[in-house]
């Protein structure tokens, strides 16, 4: 099996995934995923599509993660892994979509408007 490439995005985070057959090792920016994501919740988010399809120990995953915060990076990685798994087995798309792993979350930070302190906040109004 050749290497499968996929990209996942969330907010400002971009995850590029290279998936090939192996023993279930996940390497993010040349670190083990447990070192990169010390929080158990984020490790769980990353492994969700693999655990759902019961292929957690079947593939080795190499990841380049860039931009955004730690939560956005974890969710971008989840999307990228899901897309790579669909390229390997198109039948798995239905299961992954039902769990919500195939949908790119479109929410991003709203831009700051001129003459305001933040995107929607206004300066305090003074009548006199």
Keywords:
single chain, 128 residues, alpha+beta, Ribosomal Protein S5, domain 2, five-stranded mixed β-sheet, 5 strands, 34% helix, 23% strand, elongated
Main beta-sheet strand count, sense and barrel state: 5 strands, mixed
CATH class: Alpha Beta
Radius of gyration: 18 Å
Could you tell me the mean pLDDT?
93
CATH topology: Ribosomal Protein S5, domain 2
Oligomer: single chain
**Count of the domains:** 1
Distance between the termini: 74 Å
Brief summary:
This protein has 128 residues and is of the alpha+beta class. It has helices spanning 33-36, 40-53, 70-88, 93-98; strands at residues 4-10, 13-21, 26-28, 31-32, 59-66. The protein has a five-stranded mixed β-sheet with strand order 1-2-5-3-4.
What report would you give on this structure?
Helices cover about 35% and strands about 25% of the residues. The chain is elongated, with a radius of gyration of 18 Å. The chain is an alpha+beta fold. A hairpin with a 2-residue loop joins strand 1 and strand 2.
List the helices and strands and how they pair.
Elements: E1 4-10, E2 13-21, E3 26-28, E4 31-32, H1 33-36, H2 40-53, E5 59-66, H3 70-88, H4 93-98
Parallel strand pairs: 3-5
Antiparallel strand pairs: 1-2, 2-5, 3-4
Helix pairs in contact: 2-3
